[in-house]
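Second attempt. The first submission of Polyamine aminopropyltransferase had a stray character pasted in from the spreadsheet, which I only caught after the job came back as garbage. Lesson logged: always re-copy from the clean sequence file. Corrected sequence (275 aa) follows.
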Amino acid sequence: MELWYTEKQTENYGITAKIKRSLATEETPYQKLDMLETEEFGNMLTLDGMVMTTERDEFVYHEMVAHVPLFTHPHPKHVLVVGGGDGGVIREVVKHPEVEKVTLVEIDGSVIEHSKKFLPTIASAFDDPKVEVIVGDGFMHIAESREAYDVIMVDSTEPVGPAVKLFEKGFYEGLSRALKEDGLFIAQTDNPWFKADLIRQVYSDVKEIFPITRLYTANVPTYPSGLWTFTMGSKKHDPLEVNEARFHDIETKYYTKALHKAAFVLPKFVEDLTK
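This time the job returned cleanly.
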């Protein structure tokens, strides 16, 4: 008998993967967590039935969350990651020598523990001396912070459950207060095929708060539609005007110096969401 996992991404469309076995399942205080071993993508983490990351394609998302903002900001000494309990973003952040400290605030400690056990190549930087881990509410952490961070990365789930408030205008206002005078943030903002209205609203809200607002994309095969967007709000630094001297060699599989700016070249139907 074959076992298949299906994520129903809309009422009429889904993605499916053949499963070798279930590694772990837990009803945490916040969501249903499953760790699955798949034939095609290796170990896969799902939350509330949605794919969060897989061993095979995780590098795309994590590199594009981390390196685009860190090469945009000239002095990213203090970094905050909201969510990201699988550890992939902080793994990429600590590759930057100018980063002195990265704080990860993850609301669900079970995500961290299961990732350490079943996704060790992703969750490899939790013991790095630069990393501080807080199991707590990222929304409240932002609300209580003032001019504390150079760069903030919002690595949330899709806007359901505890992540809904991370897609609201009030949260982006909080991000602005938590950032230093030349700070910037980046947030994953879902896909343009099924969530166009969400992207349009987020971009509009961020643009009202931050002088520089940019949208960029990446290809993540196991995410809905495969085309994923990220929204950046910046007080001063424009990702399209990065000084060439800022780029230095780091080990990547997806992100490159040329791709940094190319990712901001949008298909017209996506560009239209920013108008």
